[in-house]
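User: Can you model how adenosine monophosphate sits in this protein?
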Amino acid sequence: MLFIDFSRVCEKLEGTSGRLEMIDIISKELPGLTQDELPVFVRFVMGRIFADWSSRKLGIGPNLLYEATGAVAGVTKEQVIEKINRTGDVGQAVEELLSIKSQMTFFHEELDLVRVYTELISIAEKGGAKSQREKLLAVRRLLGNAHPLEGRYLARILLEELRIGVGEGSVREAIAKGFAVDSSLVEHAMQALNDTGEVARLAKVGPDALRDVHITPFHPLKMMLAQQGTIPDMIKEHGSIAAEFKYDGSRFQFHKKGNWARLYSRRLEDVTGALPDVIEQLLSATEHDVILDGEVIAMKDGKPMPFQSVLRRLRRKHDIAEAQDAIAMVPNVFDILYLDGETLIDLPLVERRKKLEGAVRLFVAPQVQSDDPSVITKTYDNALAAGHEGIMIKVPTSPYTPGQRGRNWIKIKPEVDTLDLAVIGAEWGEGKRAHVFGSFLVAVQDAGKLIPLSRVATGFSDEQLAEVYELLKESVIRKSGKEVTFEPSLVFEVGYAELQASQNYEGGFALRFPRFIRIRDDKDIPDIETIEGIRERYKRQANSAQAYQN
Ligand code: AMP
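Assistant: Here's the modeled complex, given as structure tokens:
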């Protein structure tokens, strides 16, 4: 296929707004393409260059493109930018600029679709000190041979923003229609391979080839995602359900074949270099060739650290001091997608779980399976008590569906609700926090009286504790041992997981998992939450808990 013919298809698609019509246009082109052309065509038409699993980048910024366009059209880079600003579209600007050029030059080497792709691969592969200059020359060569219409789409593909409205769904339907195969077969192959181009090639071979797809190690799959839901709904719908802790860290996909292993992030970026310790731990856990799905969390003194610690730990990778700060990165593995050459995504979760437990010795996330709400609720309580985010509920019979946010994985975590409360007392901190207040007594109001509701000791940074100390030190009106009482003046916004009936505080309520959110210096004591408001919230919570029992 000539690139000019591809560009004409793009032009047609750009002038079409109906999805069905677009699918029709694409599907008519597909059967006539060769096995080499098919993957390039379907990727380009979506504005992509490389396979979806690939983290390869072209490494061309807009500036380089403007410079190359200027050189080819015989204008300055500034004039190119001016043109783009006027037309509001890079493609159109390049097309107009190239049409001036094409009146001056007589020789064109016809661009071919596959040849353009090959050129782009070699551009992506250029690295090192001189690479920008080499990339510039390569883009100049491409644009120098381009007709104006080709320039329009080439420019947009180079920036990976084709914007002709063709998405993965349309291409999937077009492949199904063009090769007369079942759309669900195409969808399944797309999930397993994460490469629409390859799927188009298989569809051309026939439905059996599509049916027989295999996962390839080091071609990461999209991650399966979760929806929100409730424990009773899931039990009602499925009977026995599986529950795991919901770890608050960073999602990973671990690929291992022989002695070779890589780690991919949720966005399928290769993060092997950033997390060598995680790779090492996982390598120590299995001798098999595997693809594992999991979440890496930061742990300190046996407790999970907030998600930000994972990021902070990554940033401090090269800092020697970091080695002493005792934050360990711990993988939690909850699924297996591939084992010793076998693709497992279509097996039910229970079967995958058996394979996982058989193949991986360490770091497998514990799982509870039950149709008893109290057992699942207990797991949830344990998860929160251990400092995790909540639980994930999974349907035992469900396959692994990459990239899908379906009802087979349900996340249950506390709603983050907040209250504005008055700070009425505090306790001195300990250790390196001994010179500031470390935990605070907060109160609601009841007809002008302040009633203690909770103690808040988490959620503060060292800086915030120092700031709060400065704000409160002049307000101390009583001291008793480690405790102080304040003349109320400061308001905290406090997050919590749940309101509980409690005899410990005279208001009759207490907060579960209270956490400092921020100082509300825009609020005064009369603005804080009332006991009436708390009762209302408790009633609402009880109602939803009852819905939860039914
Ligand atoms: P959310 O990001 O709130 O939509 O929750 C889904 C995310 O929870 C997944 O993408 C994982 O990163 C994370 N997660 C933590 N623990 C698990 C688990 N046991 N199973 C699946 N996902 C988990």
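A couple of observations from the model: Residues 546-550 have pLDDT under 50 and may be disordered. The pocket of adenosine monophosphate is lined by residues 223, 225-226, 244, 246-247, 251, 295, 334, 365, 392, 411 (CB under 6 Å).
User: Helpful, thanks.
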